[in-house]
Write a structure and sequence with these properties.
Oligomer: single chain
CATH class of the largest domain: Alpha Beta
Number of domains: 2
Enzyme class: oxidoreductase
Strand order of the largest sheet: 3-2-1-4-5-6-14-15
Number of strands: 15
Order of helices and strands: EHEHEHEHEHEHEHEHEHEEEEHHHEEHH
CATH superfamily of the largest domain: NAD(P)-binding Rossmann-like Domain
EC number: 1.4.1.1
CATH topology of the largest domain: Rossmann fold
Shape: globular
Radius of gyration: 21 Å
Protein name: Alanine dehydrogenase
Catalytic activity: L-alanine + NAD(+) + H2O = pyruvate + NH4(+) + NADH + H(+)
InterPro entries: Ala_DH, Ala_DH/PNT_CS2, AlaDH/PNT_N, AlaDH/PNT_NAD(H)-bd, NAD(P)-bd_dom_sf
Length: 376
């Protein structure tokens, strides 16, 4: 198979979808790899490193899309890429379709095959290709939140861990999944008073056991959240419903209950956000204020630490990408249930129900589409 690795062009996105080590694995399996010039530079990988393992460097993104049968990316295509995508071309990347109707319709129109990292799912319901970036984003949420709590950055002027004789900050984490657990761990490690909420009592019991003593667990409901936001200095949105839009746990009217200079970090922004006043921002312009409340809503947080993020991501994605290349997406998705659940859009059809429901589109079962493909 011919593999294409374009350079990421989303604002301040420095990650790359394939390392030289990954390119070497593809070559070892008999595949051709084409990498756009300087695609790996932001993550610390030079073109010469890709060439040394047998990859070919192409000068433009247009050349990469034109030659590739499978495009391996990090972030979803943006508008300038829509016209480059070919019919039947396989795209393997993060899509987060439920947060963008424009992207969904563009991919339907392209008649491409869109396999989303974020919905590849194991039998135990874990999301193996979302976990590494969730770990990075969860830890970064505290790092960035602590920075924007500083007075010159618009925050309350609070040191997260406090000092002797001065109370530490109060951190509220909404959601007890990977992002939430990592956020709570980081905040607790810095000495903050942390409260983590979730709707799953079994998950709360687990978190109670593994997290430090300065982390409290609370059942998530509107009454409790309304009470907790009053004393919170930093609130982290860490809610995920796989493939679907995140619910609003913090509503517009709750901002009036918060102290001026409170910082909100919505890690769920790429799934629509779990804070109603959230809108996607970039590393170039990461924050805005509403009613004196600082909102940090960068949609590609791990892009700020590309070396760590790229290695963590490709460690997880490469085995799946190799399967797709070796067997073709039809056979690979038939044989591997994890990959099958990653299919979201196939040749003009929505095959992931949460995406169809988000925009009132017709849903076609993935089994039906795979049967047609294999027979055809």
């Amino acid at each position: 198979m011919i593999i294409g690795v374009p350079k990421e062009i989303k604002n301040n996105e420095n990650r790359v979808a394939l390392t030289p080590a990954g390119a070497a694995e593809f070559r070892k399996n008999g595949h051709k790899v084409y990498v756009q010039a300087t695609a790996g530079q932001g993550s610390g990988f030079e073109d010469s490193e890709y060439e040394a393992v047998g990859a070919t460097i192409l000068g433009t993104i247009e050349e990469v899309y034109a030659i590739a049968e499978m495009i391996v990316k990090v972030k979803e295509p943006i508008a300038s890429e829509y016209g480059l995508i070919k019919e039947n071309q396989l795209l393997f990347t993060y899509f987060h379709f439920a947060s963008s109707e424009e992207l969904t319709h563009a991919m339907l129109k392209s008649n491409s095959v869109c396999l989303a990292y974020e919905t590849v799912e194991k039998v135990d319901r874990s999301l193996p290709l979302l976990v590494p970036m969730s770990e990075v984003a969860g830890r970064m949420a505290i790092q960035e939140g602590a920075k924007y709590l500083e007075k010159p950055m618009g925050g309350r002027g609070i040191l997260l861990g406090g000092v002797a004789g001065v109370k530490p900050a109060n951190v509220l984490v909404l959601g007890g999944g990977i992002v939430g657990a990592q956020s709570a761990k980081m905040a607790a490690g810095l000495g903050a008073n942390v409260t983590i909420v979730d709707i799953n009592l079994n998950r709360l019991r687990y978190l109670e056991d593994i997290l430090p003593a300065n982390v409290d667990t609370v059942m998530s409901n509107e009454y409790n959240i309304r009470d907790l936001v009053k004393s919170a200095d930093l609130i982290v949105g860490a809610v995920l419903i796989p493939g679907a839009k995140a619910p609003h746990l913090v509503t517009r009217d709750m901002l009036k209950l918060m102290k001026k200079g409170t910082v909100l970090v919505d890690v769920a922004v790429d799934q629509g956000g779990c804070i109603e006043t959230c809108k996607p921002t970039t590393h170039e312009d990461p924050i805005y204020e509403i009613d004196g409340i600082v909102h940090y809503c960068v949609a590609n947080m791990p892009g700020a630490v590309p070396y760590t993020s790229t290695l963590a991501l490709t460690n997880a994605t490469l085995p799946y990408a190799i399967q797709l290349a070796n067997k073709g997406w039809q056979k690979a998705c038939t044989l591997n249930e994890d990959l099958k659940k990653g299919l979201n859009v196939v040749n003009g059809k929505v095959v992931y129900k949460a995406v169809a429901d988000a925009f009132g589109l017709k849903f076609t079962s993935v089994e039906e589409v795979l049967e047609e493909e294999l027979v055809g």
